[in-house]
Amino acid sequence: xxxxxxxxxxxxLAACRRAGIVVGVLTGDHPLTALAVARDLGLxxxxxxxxxxxxLDAAAARGVQDFDALCARSRxxxxxxxxxxxxxxxxxxxxxxxxxxxxxxxNDAPALRAAQVGVAMGWRGTDVAREASDIVLTDDNFASIxxxxxxxxxxxxxxxxxxxxxxxxxxxEIVLFGxxxxxxxxxxxxxxxxxxxxxxxxxxxDVALAFEPAxxxxxxxxxxxxxxxxxxxxxxxxxxxxALLIGGGAFWLYQRLLGLGDSVEEAxxxxxxxxxxxxxxQAFNSRSETLSACTQHPxxxxxxxxxxxxxxxxxxxxxxxxxxQRLLGLAPVSAAHWGELLVAASTLLLLSEAxxxxxxxxxxxxxxxxxxxPRTRARRRARSRDPGELRR
Length: 392
Known about the structure:
Helix 11 (233-259) runs antiparallel to helix 12 (264-285), helix 11 runs antiparallel to helix 15 and helix 12 runs parallel beside helix 15 (335-361). The chain is mainly alpha-helical.
């Protein structure tokens, strides 16, 4: 008699190893049955790697430390009772792990309830298991959990991209106004110009970033610590660099134009155009925290491309439309000014590319989401092949 794992389960386990997710088996079946399934999945090679319920009881009798040590070095548990499943989950949580449990029976309910994420089977699962869980799988397929992890990481990354675009451009405007006030210059933008800037640069682009497709390396990243906030070190670095360049560059142009004898209205017009160019470039910089904007095909997110083109076209159109000219204080600029402004806006792309290249070359904890280098990934794969090591 044979009840082999599904073919997609092996691929899903391989994806879990790449993603830094440790998979274990807790079953009430005989140790030999558990070993056969675990060997087929690459979770265990010999009987010594299967922990039985009797061994758990013996370790618990010696103390919590022995019990936790046994749970930490084991990945396959057989002949375990419902109470022991619960104690294993609690032991892993004491060890700092974020635990998810799958189950379908009444005996799985305590562990499902205690885990950070309980996942019940929708077809074969009992009502008790489903009520005790946070998620119900409608297809009873472990691979669906891995697919959900990948989609969750994509969604979280897109949220970070939108926040980065909004915060970095908003901070740049604060830098611009702060420098102008410190220098005793007139306000670099009128209120209506500032509203127009936010409308044409953030009206569509931030929504389009939410539909950014997967970068392809989501399951090659280690799990994000649950306590880590949106504004980790990488986010703060990128926001600070972008804000200083955009705000500082716009202020330098504004005070330079005033120094050359341009009127305040003319200086504001050119400064506003530079900010529009800067912030449209920033929309493409926001597509990835580590991948070069030059390697990402613009048609992979046509909403963003169309949004940037429409925003830029809308501003250019306003510069030549009499009613909007008067309302927004706009006017056409010379070809020479266009060339200077395009070169100035390109510096933001160069700065972003340099920072991304640095993060790829020297990954660190603050830029953990930026991905690991080849040696780090090799060490991670080597550790994942060790059945006795349990990692976060």
